[in-house]
Amino acid sequence: MTFVPDARVSALNDAGLRGDGDFVLYWMVTQRRLEWNYALDQAVGYARKLGLPLVILEALRVGYRWSSPRHHRFALDGMREHRQRLADGSVTYLAYVEPEEGAGKGLLETLASRAAVIVTDDYPVFFVPRMQHAAGRALDVRLERVDSNGLLPMRSAGRTFFAAQHFRRHLHKTLPALFGESPEAAPFDGGLPEGPAPLPDGLLDRWPMASPDLLDGDAELLRGLPLEYDVAPAQAGGGRAAARERLERFLTNHLDDYGEGRNHPDDGGASGLSPWLHWGHLSAHEIFDRLTRREEWTPARVSDEVTARREGWWGMSQGAEAWLDELITWREIGFNFAVERPDYDQYDSLPDWARKTLAEHAADPREHVYDLDAFDAAATHDPLWNAAQRQLRREGVIHNYLRMLWGKKILEWTPDPRAALEIMIELNNRYALDGRDPNSYSGIFWVLGRFDRGWPERAVYGTVRSMSSESTRRKVRLTRYLDRFGETSD
Question: Sheet holding 115-121: strands in order across?
């Protein structure tokens, strides 16, 4: 059986394997890829061990909060690739898209009735944990969830980290022992038991699979789904091919200057990979592998010293080390927090010092106050903030540096910090392709003091770090950015 580290696997019920099962089922939920995926490795391993064909169910539901054509189209792009790659029938691929809320009810249970075992993805936020725990209680066959989110198994620490430097020190202690572990780059190599799998009678009649036209991008079919909000698909396409193209472009054009260039919107120096990481179309392990090969790196270059420094520990180039700190430290501390704190998206999860200082300044006069509609419409007095909001609405992303400013000004221009949090979550999750992700919640809550420290006291902010559009204009290059997203760009 394919080896998946024990720290990444947990059972969601006490049921055993079904001895007379017809197939192994991989319920693909968040790690939507066919390579570099521990959950898929686990399912493939079971299929080979039991001598049974593999079924992959990749479903896309409607009716959840913030569902929109933007999020659906990005996911459908990946499903189209999967349908094409698995067309030979060696794996039974079921691409199901709910035509209306609740239409998919019973699909998993029906498949489970003939499955020997079910494997799914471990993911700590949004409706996923509740949905999977409910499935575990309802099913009479073993349901395992497998963590393929990052280099560090997200449940392995057993404690919460409240500062990046403390988490970085933990990584320096633990990662060297994990450098030899990674998911399979090509999990189907070596073959699988003969397919296709025998599906339960009537399953495809009751739950028809997504049409090729919908997966291929038919706009009318997409508009026919009951999705919330008028949020159009973004220009960026989902799927592995688009993710790999973006990765290679970044490594070729921007990695060497990443440490300084990433902060300048005009330079486009950020990797921009967060949407594909969020939707599971690209793996942090694959990114790490590609980077280390480019750097001709081996674990022998890692420093023996356990530090909390951002750079110098890996033994890579300056740009590579700065990027790894974003990809591993800052991304994975968010997964750690979400696993350890079920209230990860609640105001009361902020550190005591931040809640105290924000409460002390909650009644401070605000020069400008806006409601959700004004923020949404990019109708503030500040052209730079408005440009960042326009980018979010159009492209589903905000430049990394401006994303921080975007949040800080919402804190400054709302009646109180709780209202600011609600607006940030609403706008981010409505428009951002990486919304509803542990990493994006980290960014939102960082605005309010999570993973940060106290700064000189100011009105409204207290000792929470402040930012201003004026200082941002002085620090970063914005001319081309404002040409693209300024008022005259509408």
Answer: 9-11, 143-146, 115-121, 23-28, 54-60, 92-97
Residue 115: other Cβ atoms inside 10 A: 29
* 489, pLDDT greater than 60: yes
Task: Name 161's Cβ contacts closer than 8 Å, sequence gap at least 6.
Answer: 167, 170, 333, 336, 337
What mean pLDDT do residues 223-237 have?
A: 94
| Mean pLDDT, the chain, whole residue set | 96
Instruction: Summarize pLDDT for 86-111 with one digit per residue, the tens.
Output: 999 999 999 999 999 999 999 999 99
> Judging by DSSP bridges, how do beta strands 92-97 and 115-121 pair with one another?
unpaired
Tell me how far apart the alpha carbons of residues 3 and 181 are, in angstroms, rounded to a whole number.
Answer: 9
Provide the pLDDT for residue 306. 83
User: Same domain, yes or no, for 331 and 373?
Assistant: no
CATH, residue 264? 1.25.40.80
418: in domain: yes
**Containing domain of residue 103, as a range?**
1-148
Evaluate whether 121 touches 280 at the Cβ level (below 8 Å). yes
Whole-Å CA distances, 239 to 39, 60, 269, 370? 18, 15, 22, 37
Paired residues of 60 in beta bridges: 97
First vs last C-alpha separation in the chain: 56
Per-residue CA distances from 320 to 151, 290, 313 (Å): 16, 11, 11
pLDDT at 2: 58
Does the N-terminal peptide bond of residue 196 adopt cis geometry, omega within 30 degrees of 0? yes
- What CATH number is associated with residue 52? 3.40.50.620
Residue type, 280: G
Tokens standing for 77? 């792009």
- Across 205-235, b (16+ Cβ under 10 Å) vs e yields eebebbeeebbeeeeebbeebebeeebbbbe
Separation between Cα atoms, residue 462 and residue 241, nearest integer Å: 46
CA-wise closest residue to 182 among 335, 299, 54: 299
pLDDT of residue 135: 98
Which residue, among 259, 460, 484, has the nearest Cα to 357 in the 3D structure?
A: 460
Q: Are 167 and 302 in contact (CB under 8 A)?
A: no
Closest CA to 261 of 484, 477, 470, 483: 477
The tally of domains found in the chain comes to 3
Q: Which two tokens stand for residue 455?
A: 């700064």
